[in-house]
Amino acid sequence: MSDDIYLKRTILKETVPSRHLEEGSRELRVYLPPGYNEVLSYPVVYGQDGEDLFNFGRAATLANRLIIDGELEPFILVGVDVDKKKRTSEYAPDGARHEAYARFFAEEMLPYIEDKYPVRRERRERLLIGDSLGGTVSLHLALRYPELWNRVLSLSGAFYPASQAIAARQGDLSWLQLYLYVGLQETDYETDTGVYDFVKLNREMDALLADRGADIHYVEKDGKHQWGSWQREIPDGLKHFLD
């Protein structure tokens, strides 16, 4: 089959008004599957770093391929954009803008999508996906809003001490399902807050969450802290939850 068929994607732009975000709104990208029909209902994946997820992660093309090839049922993918200068402040649980972002995501963005698109509203039909700090904020959204999300696909999550402290305070997490991936070449990655061993951080978070009963599929394989590695892992992560 020609690759051209996978590249015929439907991606819409949305602007969600917000009372919580100081800029007053946030841009979204919404991927609609082949054969999209408003009378049907679809599982939905909510992704951080929307622009990069679609452009560098090629998430819409990967979704098209999985659906067209019959590996997954059709689903909707929502990518929430971020201003990279404010990304750490929004995504890190101790960031100054984290509270506002979490409330926007759960209390404004989610209802906006559910009002406009035929997405399924059961918790088991929603998935959070994110890379690095995007994986971190996805986990914390689930911990904060367990009635909304219990499935998280984290790609090289930036599970710094503040995140681990929050995880350590949790009780029973048997309701939480995670796919945790980290690349083995991520042992000395330089970030805007220092140099970190992401393999160590992910192993520690895996242990913390497993001790509290979370259902975790943990993956380590060759890979760097970059979209080239995460792009290769996205299909397996999606199939783990949506198959």
Automatic annotation (TrEMBL):
InterPro entries: AB_hydrolase_fold, Esterase-like, Mycobacterial_A85_antigen. SUPFAM superfamilies: alpha/beta-Hydrolases. The keyword Cell wall biogenesis/degradation does not apply. Keywords: Hydrolase. One of its GO terms (molecular function) is hydrolase activity. It holds the Pfam family Esterase. The keyword Protein biosynthesis does not apply. Its EC number is 3.1.1.-. PANTHER family: ENTEROCHELIN ESTERASE-RELATED, IRON(III) ENTEROBACTIN ESTERASE. This is Acetyl esterase. It comes from Paenibacillus pasadenensis. The lineage of its organism: Bacteria, Bacillati, Bacillota, Bacilli, Bacillales.
